[in-house]
Amino acid sequence: MAKKTKALGKGLSALIPESIEAKDSGIIELKITDIVANETQPRRTFGQDTLSELAESIKEHGVVQPIVVRKDGKGYEIVAGERRWRAARLAGIKTIPVVVKDYSKVQAMEIALIENLQREDLNPIEEANAYRTLMEEHKVSQDDIAKRIGKSRPKVANTLRLLNLNEEVRELLISGELSAGHGRALLAISNEARQLDIAKRIVKEGLNVRQTEKMSQKTVKKNKKPKSPEIVEIEGKLRDILHTKVSLTHGRKKGKIEIEYYSNDDLERIINLIEKK
Question: For 2-121, CATH number?
Fold first, then answer.
């Protein structure tokens, strides 16, 4: 866990040159009502119990660590520290200490994403949606996202794949009833109804990720003829080259290759790889 935090810290320091936790002459007090939440904030769920606890602490001790904001029109938009801002409002505080930074929309979203990842505040679907927004709306590549947050590109790609799950299965990941590992295992099942049935069984029986993987593999085998070792080997080679899931269907005279991509940016990346080969 320390290794992960260290890697993420490098990404955050690249975006915020000086520590926002250190004493800073740029800290000022702003009215709570002059500050708005970041509409691209990746975190969508805030636990009411923990928010109430923080509000009680703020009533007693005040807001110890300033939040980071950017100028937005006539007011200010939160870059980092939305939870503290929400708790301060709940506590009835009129002003809050802030550091004002000249960040763009993209920088603000990247910093909010990294802050939440460091604190492990995001559920897997919130994380995946944040990556997709950076890629599709702000044209940030998967490689750049991976470098900024200290994760490998395949890990970013695997998180994005979770958005292909059945909508009700995604809700189970949001609520924490299923983990990202469960979700990745369920992706092997293309039939959404069957995928949801198994997801509900996982929750009911408390199955772990390994048990889910075995169940998913068993389900796939029931509905598909086993592939020859040669086909499996070719799929593996293509997967290693393209860094995405590849499925090969081979017939007597013809066949087809299915290559998965998870955004327009990812499609362009795969096309570039194929052209280079």
Answer: 3.90.1530.30
